[in-house]
Amino acid sequence: MGLFDEFARQVAKAAQAVAENTNPALAAGILEMLQQRGGLDALVRRFQEQGLGDIIASWVATGPNRPITPDDLAKVLDPEQLRELSRRAGIAMSRLPEALVGLVPAIVDHLTPEGEMPDPYRLLRMMATLFRGDRTPP
User: Fold this and answer.
1) What phi, psi does 39 have (nearest 5°)?
2) What are the boundaries of each domain within the chain?
3) pTM of the predicted model, to two decimals?
4) How many other β-carbons are positioned within 10 Å of the β-carbon of residue 115?
5) What distance in Å separates the CA atoms of residue 103 and residue 67, rounded to the nearest whole number?
6) What CATH number belongs to 3-132?
7) CB within 8 A of 105, min separation 6: which ones?
């Protein structure tokens, strides 16, 4: 099992407290998608391009997370990536955005515990902390 797979599994466990019925394969797929598509910065840009910047900003911030509709989330995420997530997680494509509306905010929230976008070095430290099982941000 690779470093990324372990990280994805740990984030899925952390996100599970926020998003009930988390599918670990789905969480791993989201993290892989983030990695392949430019990370959190790129995801924030996609939200802003769709006029949803205020929603993702609430997920990054330390306050409450604003909800997102399945339709709005589907606008932000690439259709090809959604198909791949659907296949990997064993979730019907029609139900995938609904499954992601709790998980994506939880993952973004977990990766930005102090309300800021982590730089690559901080993200690596966060990963190391997760591997030790410590839930306190570094």
Assistant:
1) 75, -165
2) 3-132
3) 0.72
4) 12
5) 11
6) 1.10.10.690
7) 18, 19, 59, 65, 67, 68
Q: How many residues does the chain have?
A: 138
CA atoms within 13 A on the CB side of 55: 20
Q: Give the SS3 label for residue 19.
A: coil
45-85: pLDDT as tens digits:
999 999 999 999 999 999 899 999 999 998 999 889 889 99
Q: Give the CB-side neighbour count of residue 88, counting CA atoms within 13 A.
A: 17
Alpha helices in 1-138, H assignment, sequence order: 3-16, 24-36, 39-49, 53-60, 70-76, 79-89, 96-111, 120-132
Distance CA 15, CA 117 (A): 17
